[in-house]
Automatic annotation (TrEMBL), chain A:
Residues 246-271 are annotated as: Disordered. Residues 260-271 have a biased composition (Basic and acidic residues). This is L-lactate dehydrogenase complex protein LldE. Residues 246-259 have a biased composition (Polar residues).
TrEMBL record, chain B:
It holds the Pfam family LutB_C. SUPFAM superfamilies: 4Fe-4S ferredoxins, NagB/RpiA/CoA transferase-like. The keyword Electron transport applies. GO terms for biological process: lactate metabolic process. This is L-lactate dehydrogenase complex protein LldF. Keywords: 4Fe-4S, Electron transport, Iron, Iron-sulfur, Metal-binding, Repeat, Transport. Residues 341-416 form the 4Fe-4S ferredoxin-type domain. Residues 443-510 form the Lactate utilization protein B C-terminal domain. GO terms for molecular function: 4 iron, 4 sulfur cluster binding. InterPro entries: 4Fe4S_Fe-S-bd, FTHF_cligase-like_sf, Helical_ferredxn, LUD_dom, LutB/LldF, LutB_C, NagB/RpiA_transferase-like. Residues 1-22, 507-531 are annotated as: Disordered.
Length: 271, 531
């Protein structure tokens, strides 16, 4: 398949390990990945904070960038984030219609119909649960709120993880409880957010896991930020980073909480 | 709806530091406005979060009731169809509300009841007080009711020299402690058994002096106290869970039997009901009487379901008054998105699953309607024209009191999409503030971010700029101190230093041969949306 990658603004800028692993994984599975460079952000932050008007140009850019998928130029768009996929699926068209942009809303719906969160793409579209991964570490999985309750991915991520060779997958207590991120909630209601994070990190620590994984870097940024502050030494890796790992090309365990992948060896050539 | 028995949490307080029994119990003084008291949510939550006992009580109680609910909902094969039916009936009610209300009035009147219309809290309180006075009552017994909480009826009656006695056990605890409820269904959820014993000993005149904190003893003491009130009261005041338009039938569901006492023993019954609590036909009760108990108390069926239609000569109250309360509801009904909040049947399932409510408790919401439903209902009921609170109003903070985790929507028996309404309310406030001058850091940041994030090249440039900070955070690459507003983050979490290379830089290096395009350098323009 020809799959367009929507890297998400957060991962593109702060956590390139997640989209890089998505590319590595999909290419290993024999698919062609394209990265439309006009992309920036899906608009979720603006929408959820109530700034619909400011969200419109952001949504327009996303929809127009990925519109070729509706015309069959690509087979699918993959977004390695439950909340961004949720925003594409449940918010973009609504915000466009509110702004009187019915045509843009219709295009947004056509694009969203072919936009998938990573575990949806792998399980529903590609029909895989065993992606041939090898990851010899103790891992616990946090099902992020939007993938669970907006996208209803169910146990797809867990099915993918269970099929990983050599993994020691341990259950996270109170897994479906929110970590307290909530976008600007973490800033506007910092104390409440911190109280929720405290419980989430305590549960993660209690598993004895070496790695916490999830399908959304924003939630991982939050929980990982707490684990880092508490000096736990637990790593926060995106689901794609676990699934991309193989015996011959293992995802290295980062020296810090999050992956800090090396620059491309070809960097200087293009600069 | 009355309370379910959750087991009173064990106190962690030692007997020797229990303090004097006449210590003030209520952390919340009785507010002038039951829908707007105290600080804005972030500040109020900061205070309640310091109360470790409260968090333990809430954590225990919400966990128990979540588990019970999940079990009894899980055994209903057509639960999702029931939710759809409940949602559909409520949509129908909202679409036909004026006609259905008139039908209800005709039916209640034809069966010997008297219908009163109250535009707001003051009118409703006046009507109830006048009825009680006309009956010469200086004491009325009450069935637990959110509508009368919402209008501050007890305080209004007290001003007229009439004592309103709450007969639901948890409401009695709250009332004796001169406190405010913190949960729709279990209003004393913030109290543990030792506190309840202290409250009874200090404030319930006929409590046995050797009262222990064993739940059964506490309940028996309250039972004896209330029995005397039931037998002497001439007037009862109730709310209503449902009113059936085509028969004029009112319904109250409860667990303790106190409601049945109030609804049958006194000579006069006054029911105060929000105008949205209608169902069109008697058959519609079938849907809601399945949805409500499973969602609220986690029971298959509530112990008491009382239905009455007007007045039955020689049986029960011989005078029945129905007060139909608007109090902001028609304004909520006018809003296409927000009106779904009126579908609420006050089950409180959304409170019990809300991770925010579980941590901060009900008082942080500053309204008799706390939790997720409160966060969408309260600001709409108190909003001024156009459904806007204005940023000076503490209730304007309520739509932000959520991570949008969606747990509330998932359990709502009438499928109110609370997260979407929260976001819509945020947008209303943002739009209302656009006309205001002065610097709002959020607005400035959002406008700037919109400009950057609406274009791949500008975003690429911003990302490249961020990588200049890749050396931040020292060896751990973890930033632990930051200036405001990021300091709100770094107080309890590290921020990772930016990467050496953004994803798109890596992609360009790996996949593209053409040089990076030049980028336009104009700043964000102050467009028409400044107005």
């Amino acid at each position: 398949m020809r799959i367009a990658l929507a890297a998400t603004c957060l991962a593109d800028t702060l956590f390139p390990g997640a989209p890089r692993a998505t590319v590595r994984l999909l290419e290993r599975l024999g698919h062609e990945v394209v990265f439309p460079t006009d992309q920036a952000c899906c608009g979720q932050m603006h929408v959820n904070t109530g700034y619909y008007r400011e969200a419109v140009p952001v949504i327009r850019n996303h929809v127009e960038t990925f519109a070729p998928v509706a015309d069959g130029e690509w087979d699918a768009v993959v977004m390695p984030s439950g909340s961004c996929t949720g925003s594409v699926r449940h918010q973009q068209a609504m915000v466009c219609r509110r702004a009187g942009l019915d045509d843009l809303a219709a295009t947004a719906e056509a694009v969203s119909a072919k936009t998938y969160e990573l575990s949806e793409l792998l399980v529903d579209v590609l029909g895989l649960t065993d992606v041939g991964a090898w990851f010899p570490h103790r891992v616990t999985y946090h099902p992020t709120c939007h993938s669970l309750r907006m996208l209803h991915v169910g146990d797809k991520p867990l099915r993918l993880l269970r099929a990983v060779e050599a993994i020691d997958l341990v259950e996270l207590p109170a897994a479906d409880s929110c970590c307290g991120f909530g976008g600007t909630f973490a800033l506007k209601n910092a104390d409440t957010s911190a109280a929720m994070l405290e419980d989430k990190t305590a549960n993660v620590r209690g598993t004895g896991a070496e790695v916490l994984t999830a399908g959304d870097m924003s939630c991982l940024m939050h929980i990982g930020g707490g684990l880092s502050r508490q000096g736990t030494g637990i790593h926060a890796l995106h689901l794609a980073e676990v699934l991309a790992s193989t015996r011959t090309d293992p995802t290295p365990m980062p020296a810090t909480t999050f992956s800090r992948p090396e620059r491309s060896e070809r960097t200087e050539a293009t600069r | 709806m009355s309370r379910t028995f959750l087991g009173l949490p064990r106190t962690l307080r030692r007997p020797d530091d229990a303090g004097a029994v006449d210590e003030p119990f209520g952390a919340v003084p009785h507010p002038q406005e039951p829908l707007r008291w105290g600080d804005a949510f972030p500040a109020a939550a900061k205070q309640t979060l310091k109360n470790d006992q409260l968090r333990r009580n809430l954590g225990h109680a919400t966990q128990v009731i979540r588990t019970k609910r999940a079990a009894v909902v899980g055994e209903v094969p057509d639960w999702e169809a029931l939710r759809d039916a409940g949602s559909a009936v409520k949509q129908q009610v909202m679409a036909q509300l004026p006609d259905l209300l008139q039908q209800l009035e005709e039916q209640v009147t034809a069966r010997g009841g008297v219908v009163h219309w109250a535009r707001d809290a003051a009118e409703a309180n006046r009507i109830v007080a006048d009825i009680a006075k006309a009956k010469g009552a200086d004491e009325v017994v009450k069935v637990k009711s959110m509508a009368t909480q919402e209008i501050g009826l007890n305080e209004a009656l007290a001003d007229e020299g009439i004592a309103a006695i709450e007969t639901d056990l948890a409401e009695l605890i709250v009332q004796l402690a001169d406190d405010m409820p913190s949960h729709i269904l279990v209003p004393a959820i913030h109290r543990n058994r030792s506190e309840i014993r202290d409250i009874f000993l200090a404030r319930m005149g006929d409590a046995p002096p050797d009262l222990s904190d064993v739940p059964r003893e506490l309940a028996m003491a309250a039972r004896a106290h209330l029995r005397r009130k039931f037998l002497s009261a001439k007037v009862a005041v109730s709310g209503a869970n449902f009113a059936v338009a085509d028969t004029g039938t009112l319904a109250v569901v409860e667990s303790e039997g106190n409601g049945r006492m109030c609804l049958t023993l006194p000579e006069t019954l006054v029911t105060v009901m929000g105008i949205e609590k209608l169902v069109p036909t008697f058959d519609d009760l079938e849907v809601f009487l399945q949805l409500l108990p499973r969602s609220s108390t986690g029971e298959r069926m509530n112990p008491y379901t009382s239905l009455w239609t007007g007045v039955t000569p020689g049986d029960g109250p011989q005078e029945f008054h129905l007060v139909l309360l608007d109090n902001g509801r028609t304004d909520v009904l006018a809003d296409e998105v927000g009106r779904a909040a009126l579908h609420c049947i006050r089950c409180s399932a959304c409170l019990n699953v809300c991770p925010v409510y579980e941590r901060v408790g009900g008082h942080a919401y500053g309204s008799v309607y706390p939790g997720p439903i409160g966060a969408i209902l309260t600001p709409q009921l108190t909003a001024s024209t156009g459904g806007v609170s204005g940023h000076h109003d503490p209730n304007a903070s309520l739509p932000y009191a959520s991570t949008l985790c969606g747990a509330c929507y998932e359990v709502c028996p009438v499928k109110i999409d609370i997260p979407s309404i929260l976001v819509d309310l945020r947008a209303r406030e943002v739009d209302a503030d656009r006309s205001k001058h002065g610097v709002d850091p959020w607005k400035t940041a959002m406008k700037a971010a919109s400009w950057v994030m609406a274009d791949g090249d500008r975003f690429a440039l911003a990302g490249r700029a961020a990588t200049l900070g890749s050396g931040l955070g020292g060896r751990d690459h973890a930033i632990s101190v930051a200036p405001p507003p990021a300091s709100a983050w770094t107080r309890s979490r590290d921020l990772p230093a930016p990467p050496r290379q953004t994803f798109r830089q890596w992609w360009a290096a790996e996949h593209e041969t053409s040089p990076v395009e030049t980028v336009e350098t104009d700043g964000p323009t102050s467009e028409e949306d400044d107005r």
